[in-house]
Amino acid sequence: MTERDAIRRIARKAQASNPRLIAGIGDDCAIWRSAAGEDLVFTTDFLLEGVHFTRPLYSAPDIGHKALARGLSDIAAMGASPQFCLLSLALAPNCDQRWMDSFYAGLLKLAKKFDTTLAGGDLSHADRVLCDIVVCGSVPRGKALRRDGARLGDLIFVSGPLGRDWREYRRPVPRIEFGLSIRAIATSCIDITDGLSLDLHRLCEASGVGAEVDCVPVRKGATLEQALGAGEDYELLWTMPDGAAAPKGSIRIGRITRDDGIFLQGQPLEARGYDHLQQ
Amino acid sequence: MTERDAIRRIARKAQASNPRLIAGIGDDCAIWRSAAGEDLVFTTDFLLEGVHFTRPLYSAPDIGHKALARGLSDIAAMGASPQFCLLSLALAPNCDQRWMDSFYAGLLKLAKKFDTTLAGGDLSHADRVLCDIVVCGSVPRGKALRRDGARLGDLIFVSGPLGRDWREYRRPVPRIEFGLSIRAIATSCIDITDGLSLDLHRLCEASGVGAEVDCVPVRKGATLEQALGAGEDYELLWTMPDGAAAPKGSIRIGRITRDDGIFLQGQPLEARGYDHLQQ
User: Does B121 touch chain A (CB under 8 A)?
Assistant: First the structure.
């Protein structure tokens, strides 16, 4: 398989049909037509063999799925609609054409579910499989959900019970619809992919506030420890004014307080979660 | 160094000041304000230790520079103005804070030269240094230079003599101004980062044409072989109608012909260049 053949195969499978994508796979750049009145949001996320997954615990389509899911989860956290993605992929020596086809099948299945066009990327080789996804989403001007909007007295919610083990959670489903459903009412939002305690700390720090957490919804089979610090939950954590109607599936976990710390049932809640530079 | 500290340091150094960048480093996504009447172009490029560079042959600022230069070269090939970039970086075990600071110094110096705002990215760890750059450029609607516009009778040009050795070429300067200067007259364009012969084949294939190359401008100290196939030239290869005025520095190398092959002085010119899947 040459690079040219591989790119042709990928382009055929991607079959871009978004009228705003003027040029997709096959040129130096993808070309996207701007529209006034919208903001575009961009995220980029690594998915690296040996760091974020191992083989054969993860199959090729699992890896393709998860590479995109990581980016889509950030798009969900902004309350945005996904538009297109670019994928940088380095193949390991034992990844043949069949492996590559399966990888893209996994990625494109999820892309189709959320109307995300594969618009381009880069192809390389390495001693391990390396993925880096870029996702672009759109949102009406000024309406993106940010981390820094939580205000004193706001209630804090999560979109589902927490405590996922990344080894078991091969095909996470990003909460795109959920993000869209809270866009008009949320004051701040973040996705929980590094653990509730760490991501709550990040949200509070960005907003310059504190928090009092009353209860943590723990997934069946998980421990409180896992719910607080395991990460990989792909749920949303958000705040909204007291009295607003939360969408179905919302779980209230606490309230935003003055900037004097983050507490769980009266005890200081440390930021425990995955830190890439502390491994 | 924790991830949080590292992100703060990077954000402080990046000092985003682009009024269209509504939110930069520090949220789930960067937020970019769209404008009607423009097209945005996007590219993503790996720069991987052991594949694209080695240490200590490349210093930290060399690597930061080159990571961005690869993306900017694609933006130049579209005739676009760079706007912002996102950088995914995995640090190796022996990369300390000083290394990271030097890396970003190299990247941000080049970014400043070409008004490119560092808007976000991802930070991770791996056994080797891994970079993946995303660059966004803008161009008036419908004016992006593509590979597929070369027409029978067009003249073929390059932006400078060819034959670079990647081991020696640590700080390539992308031809942004050159790309802008040919945007109104070129019918097609590609950057030569995989070797003239391979990139000319790509341009001709996309355009459905052939080519007759009369002469290849070889850099002082390089061989014809290197000029044709070594890659890493960071020059532009473009076509334009016979009779149009080429900008200063342009070197005419041949003419577009019917789709019956690519020839150098009457001999078939094979596509020799770097193929990531054939290593």
Answer: yes
- DSSP conformation class of A198: H
Q: What are phi and psi of A203, to 5 degrees?
A: -65, -45
Q: Which CATH fold topology does A147-268 show? A: Phosphoribosyl-aminoimidazole Synthetase; Chain A, domain 2 (3.90.650)
CB contact (8 A) between residue B27 and residue A2: no
pLDDT at A279: 61
Q: Would you list the DSSP string of A83-106?
A: EEEEEEEEE-TT--HHHHHHHHHH
Query: Tens digit of pLDDT for each residue in A136-184?
Result: 999 999 999 999 999 999 999 999 999 977 666 889 999 999 999 999 9
Domain ranges of chain A: 3-140, 147-268
Domain B147-272 sits in CATH 2.30.30.40: no
* Chain B residue at shortest CA distance from A276: B124
CB contact under 8 A, B2 and A146: no
Q: How many CB atoms lie within 10 A of CB A96?
A: 10
**A75:B120 CB<8 A:** no
* Nearest residue to B250 via CA among B261, B239, B258, B260: B239
What six digits make up the tokens of A147? 């981390």
Q: Which CATH architecture has domain B3-140?
A: 2-Layer Sandwich (3.30)
